[in-house]
Prior knowledge:
It is a single chain. By secondary structure, this protein is α/β, with parallel strands linked by helices. It folds into 2 domains: 2-60 and 364-420, Roll (Urease, subunit C, domain 1); 61-357, Metal-dependent hydrolases (TIM Barrel), CATH 3.20.20. It is 40% helix and 21% strand. It contains 15 helices and 18 strands. It has helices spanning 37-43, 86-99, 104-119, 139-150, 166-184, 206-219, 231-241, 245-251, 269-278, 286-291, 299-304, 320-335, 342-357, 392-398, 426-443; strands at residues 2-10, 18-27, 30-36, 48-51, 56-59, 61-66, 123-130, 153-158, 192-194, 196-200, 223-227, 260-263, 281-284, 309-311, 376-379, 405-410, 413-417, 420-421. The strands form 3 sheets. Strands 1, 2, 3, 4, 5, 15, 16, 17 and 18 form a 9-stranded mixed beta sheet that branches. A 5-stranded parallel beta sheet has the order 10-11-12-13-14. Strands 6-7-8-9 form a 4-stranded parallel beta sheet, sandwiched between helices. The radius of gyration is 21 Å and the shape is globular. The N and C termini lie far apart (49 Å).
Amino acid sequence: MKIIGNCTLITLNKFIPFVSDGAVLEDEGLIVEVGETKVLRELYPHVEFLNMNGKIVLAGFLNAHMHLYSTFARGFGFGGASPRNFLEILKNIWWKLDKNLTTEEEIYFSALVPLIEGIKSGTTSIIDHHASFGLIDGSLDILENALLKTGVRGVLAYEVSDRWGSDLAQKSIAENVRFIKKAKNSPNKNFISASFGLHASLTLSDKTLDSCAENENKLGSGFHVHVAEGIEDVDDSMKKSGKRVLERLNDFGILGDKTLAIHCVHVNDKEIHLLKETNTMVVYNPESNMNNAVGVPPTIEIDNEGITIGLGTDGYTPSMLESIKVAYILPKFNYHDPRVGGDLAKRMLFENNSKIFSNFFEHPLGIIKKGSYADLVAFDYYPPTPINEDNFFGHLIFGLRENSLNTVIINGDVVMKNHELQKIDEKEVMSKAREIAKKFWEKM
């Protein structure tokens, strides 16, 4: 048990949204009480006190869509002409990379790197979408080990796809089924959960979708699937079925209240209504969409339907601070209206991501309140203007920077203090990763 206090506490809890000299009482990984530092210290005089020295303290950031396996693409040129479209990006970069992930060491260290970088930018929980078609069996266990090593919470899924043939597609299904069952009975269920991963409609046959739906129906895990990220996905779906992507997926029972539809760049009004009817959740990845030049999702229209739309990074960055800043400004640019997007961005990062994660963990995440996980991030931020419950988001967008993140606490444990990781040697990991990446690049 400990008190974490002497801070400006931004709880995101509508009942106690802001405490200027705030503190939380933590016990066994959960928040027991929230209040003023003086009051809690008087009530619990003998409890360990962790002094935040006036820092800004928020709940840890949640990343609703990540690709840990993408690490070794960093700095690699891939040779030849630059990909001209989204399908070429997939074929020439990502599918080539995931087929060459063949060892436990490669998968483990490619996960450790962004987990470390995520911690250093305030990300305490992720939903990951994994692919390593050179090593499928047990690959999610390797990611689980990386999560437990760093102390980050995670929801894991394996990306089922027919792009490397039906045998590997069936192995991918089996890896999802195995790990979902394992996660449900795991002693680490406060840290590890699972979903059923699918790549995208354009690499999934009717037979494979049938098999995935049949297996998931016995598990009730929901799906984690890329939807209409590039226009190529729509074109392929029309050729296969005469229907658009979400309509095709819905025919196989893929949509539902535990399913994450990632991207949804090229969806029309009918498909948005279908998302609403099935209570399917959406995850927006603004920087990745811009980098792949696939377009901008109709986020305002999706939100106007009352659909839960969360925020992720798609492996482009491990930083939710980066993602939220782009999510804040991109709708303004896209809709040519400086009034739009700000409120939605705030709700995506805090309210909606919290709602998405509630499907996978027993206690609330992304909020500071009694009963939630004690996941906190503390910034050395000294505001040049007043900060309060009404304007803190403006300070987050225009003031908070990653280099001001001082302390990260996950499940009540300090995993970063004074900018230094406490559970893992960052320099050692990065040095080992470079060695592995060099050999990996030779295979590419």
